[in-house]
Design goal:
The chain is α/β, with parallel strands linked by helices. The chain contains eight helices and seven strands; from the N terminus they run βαβαβαβαβαβααβα. The mean pLDDT is 86.
């Protein structure tokens, strides 16, 4: 049996009622000791009701917060709920819960664990992903940071000390949709980066939130 750690899994949500239940059920099966935080950015569907149907799941209602966006939701959850380690994953089912035990095992002090997609996405998504990764890698190179295969991954783990230090010293684009890049840019010297390959799932329910504001957020993160 793997060593249990104080881990909180953060699920940033916006209208994910169709997929959220299966995601939470998968987490509870694969990593039953982890806390689950649903950081919700003003959903107008039944996302809150789905979260409330599971015992022990924390629903962070952000509808009255001034700063909106996936990045802002993740940072808010980390600041409000202290845990030794955090795992961030999407609530749409694209990140497989089966990969959680390996991710959790790799987490340690001063560590960022990046889950790197190894299977191709649909053609348009793949083209967008490759273009974004090129920009992100170039930005990491300019600030002397370690290169990673998938700097735009939305599936990663980080210890609290590293996360808090990065928040204090770095510039985070709150309305951005890929908070990992900002953590990688701002992580303290000596932070260990662990890369774990995984097969991403295709979205089975709900609609993608990718839009022009996300592209702008990425450019802001790359240029900051």
């Amino acid at each position: 049996m793997p060593l249990m750690k104080d881990i909180a899994i953060i699920l940033p949500t916006l209208n994910e009622e169709k997929a959220l239940g299966a995601v939470i059920a998968g987490i509870k099966k694969e990593l039953p000791y982890a806390k689950i935080i649903v950081a919700d950015d003003s959903s107008e569907d039944g996302t809150e009701k789905i979260a409330a149907s599971f015992s022990g799941v924390i629903f962070l209602d952000r509808k009255n917060e001034r700063e909106k966006g996936l990045c802002a939701s993740v940072l808010h959850a980390m600041q409000k709920y202290p845990h030794e380690f955090y795992i961030v994953m999407d609530a749409d089912g694209q990140h497989p819960a089966e990969a959680l035990p390996e991710l959790a095992a790799a987490l340690g002090e001063r560590t960022v664990v990046v889950m790197c997609r190894k299977n191709p996405l649909p053609p348009l998504r793949q083209a967008i992903s490759i273009g974004a990764a090129i920009l992100a890698k170039a930005r990491l190179m300019t600030c002397g940071r370690m290169q990673v295969a998938d700097p735009m991954s939305g599936f990663f783990g980080i210890d609290r000390k590293t996360a808090m230090a990065a928040m204090e010293r770095g510039h985070f684009v709150k309305n951005g949709f890929k908070v990992l890049l900002d953590f990688l840019k701002s992580a303290p010297e000596g932070t260990k980066i662990v890369q774990v390959p995984y097969d991403i799932n295709l979205r089975k329910a709900g609609a993608s939130k990718l839009g022009a504001t996300h592209v702008v957020g990425l450019l802001q993160s790359v240029l900051s």
